[in-house]
């Protein structure tokens, strides 16, 4: 049997976080509403691209190998835009972690957002912390079954909506919604919805903090991103210890208090000459008792009761902490009720601890954010973003690729002329059909004839938002430099007959060397 102290996995003990209000709770509500609205509503936003293109604003069109984002269209050969966005996302995660710890985990991670949403449903149906604890510990009854099944049913509806919203990003949302209801949708759509429904239901409803502790790799990686200058949620133990045993002990300690220099945001409790001796004489202090005046922490466990991870922030930095800052809101409320300054639990840099404990002022938050490493992250992140914007705005609306046929590299005709063949691919990125004029530009004054297979002239029609591949033959007259030299430079030009926009590709013409 594995010793509990060395076990790599512990069975889950249900956590029932208490409802709390405050600055960080309101911030989390705002982020939750915005992120869920973006996720659920984005597939239904329309964007007119023309009669021949999809009108869904954000669409990953796997069938036609396109990615649409409002006015931006990404083709397969432009995947570097997606790669650049992923790099920016990674650098942004590094930047925020180095500056503010695990703010992604505490505020915007999908696991956190959906767990918060499921907790709202749980509180609405079953009540707040104490009511839910009593319900969990009670025997199964008709009332318990009713409350649990109601909670699970609402969770399941949210999970189905979550899985359904995901598949809407990959095809036209209204059409797929109708097909799903009439059971005409592809089987893969139902399988995807079922899988995402199950994972959302289980992860957000039952596993919750275990996903963060045992499944997510980020808690292990974050250690390399953080240092003593990182602002993270922490308990000011130099101000809170030793913990007072409730208000009665604090009231007793207040009778011994004198004024003195502020240390860590509170006045130290130092005995007054003449008063301390009298008080000490009246009260026998048991052996081993901490005789120091109590700190600001009254050991009410409010910070523990609101924590969705079930940890005690007063135990120091822990891998399970997602820095959601709800313990800050809970502690600030207690500090206000007891007449103590807020901030016993706060966003704190560990490097400030000695200074604050000695009575000094903490370094301003902006100075912790503006550090060389964070500046480097931001500079790289900005450079990648600017490069993507530059590449996006300079890319042409028409593109052409030319691939010489290598087998054979050239053909000598009966009259001595030499012919090369090329596969030319024309891309029309416009929302309407376009005609493109194709013509060669030769390095020398030699004459060469061009023929496009299947097209009598030099004009190639290309439907809207598609590509056309044509076979082009270029023939050099006998005895010319192009016909006899090993390789000659050739430039193919393409011109949009509607807009006049032009593009070109350089290639080579292979001669017979005879």
TrEMBL record:
Entry superkingdom: Bacteria
GO CC annotations, alphabetized: plasma membrane
Keyword Transmembrane helix tagged: yes
Residue stretches making up the 4Fe-4S ferredoxin-type domain: 288-316
Family annotation (SUPFAM superfamilies): 4Fe-4S ferredoxins (SSF54862)
GO molecular function: 4 iron, 4 sulfur cluster binding; metal ion binding
Membrane-spanning intervals of the chain: 27-45, 79-100, 149-169, 189-207, 375-394
Keyword Transport: yes
PROSITE patterns: 4FE4S_FER_1, 4FE4S_FER_2
Segments forming a coiled coil: none
Key words, A-Z: 4Fe-4S, Electron transport, Iron, Iron-sulfur, Membrane, Metal-binding, Transmembrane, Transmembrane helix, Transport
PANTHER family the UniProt entry points to: FERREDOXIN-TYPE PROTEIN NAPH (PTHR30176:SF3)
Name listed for the protein in its UniProt record: Cytochrome c oxidase accessory protein FixG
Origin species: Citreimonas salinaria
């Amino acid at each position: 049997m594995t010793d509990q102290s060395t076990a790599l996995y512990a069975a889950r003990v249900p956590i029932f976080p208490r409802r709390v209000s405050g600055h960080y709770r309101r911030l989390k509500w705002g982020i939750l509403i915005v992120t869920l609205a973006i996720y659920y509503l984005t597939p239904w936003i329309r964007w007119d691209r023309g009669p021949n293109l999809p009108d869904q604003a954000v669409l990953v069109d796997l069938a036609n190998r396109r990615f649409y984002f409002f006015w931006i269209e990404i083709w397969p050969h432009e995947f570097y835009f997606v790669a650049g966005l992923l790099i920016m996302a990674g650098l942004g995660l590094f930047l925020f972690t180095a500056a503010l710890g695990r703010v992604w985990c505490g505020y915007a991670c999908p696991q956190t957002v959906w767990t918060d949403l499921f907790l709202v449903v749980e509180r609405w149906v079953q009540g707040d912390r104490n009511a839910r604890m009593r319900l969990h510990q009670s025997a199964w009854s008709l009332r318990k079954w009713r409350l649990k099944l109601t909670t699970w049913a609402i969770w399941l509806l949210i999970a189905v909506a979550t899985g359904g919203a995901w598949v809407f990003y990959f095809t036209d949302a209204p059409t797929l919604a109708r097909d799903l209801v009439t059971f005409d949708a592809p089987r893969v759509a139902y399988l995807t919805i079922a899988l995402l429904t199950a994972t959302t239901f289980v992860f957000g409803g039952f596993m919750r903090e275990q996903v963060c502790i045992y499944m997510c790799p980020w808690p292990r990686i974050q250690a390399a991103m953080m240092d003593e200058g990182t602002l993270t949620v922490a308990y000011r133990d130099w101000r809170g210890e030793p913990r007072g045993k409730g208000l009665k002990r604090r009231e007793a300690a207040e009778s011994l208090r004198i004024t003195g220099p502020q240390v860590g945001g509170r006045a130290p409790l130092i005995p007054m000459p003449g008063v301390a001796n009298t008080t000490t004489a009246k009260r026998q202090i048991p052996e081993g008792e901490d005789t120091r005046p109590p700190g600001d922490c009254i050991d009410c466990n409010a910070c523990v009761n609101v924590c969705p991870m079930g940890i005690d922030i007063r135990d120091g930095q822990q891998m399970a902490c997602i820095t959601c800052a709800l313990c800050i809101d809970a502690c600030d409320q207690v500090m206000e009720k007891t007449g103590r300054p807020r901030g016993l639990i706060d966003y704190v840099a560990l490097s400030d601890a000695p200074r604050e404990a000695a009575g000094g002022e903490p370094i301003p938050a902006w100075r912790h954010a503006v550090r060389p490493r964070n500046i480097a992250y931001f500079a790289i992140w900005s450079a990648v973003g600017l490069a993507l914007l530059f590449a996006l705005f300079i890319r042409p609306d028409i593109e052409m690729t030319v691939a010489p046929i290598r087998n054979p590299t050239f053909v000598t005709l009966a009259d001595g002329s030499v012919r090369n063949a090329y596969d030319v691919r024309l891309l029309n990125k416009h929302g309407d059909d376009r005609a493109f004029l194709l013509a060669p530009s030769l390095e020398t004054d030699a004459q060469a004839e061009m023929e496009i297979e299947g097209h009598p002239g030099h004009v190639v029609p290309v439907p809207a938002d598609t590509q056309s591949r044509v076979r082009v033959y270029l023939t050099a007259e006998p005895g010319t430099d192009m016909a006899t030299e090993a390789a000659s430079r050739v430039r193919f030009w393409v011109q949009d007959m509607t807009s006049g926009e032009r593009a070109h590709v350089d290639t080579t013409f292979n001669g017979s060397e005879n």
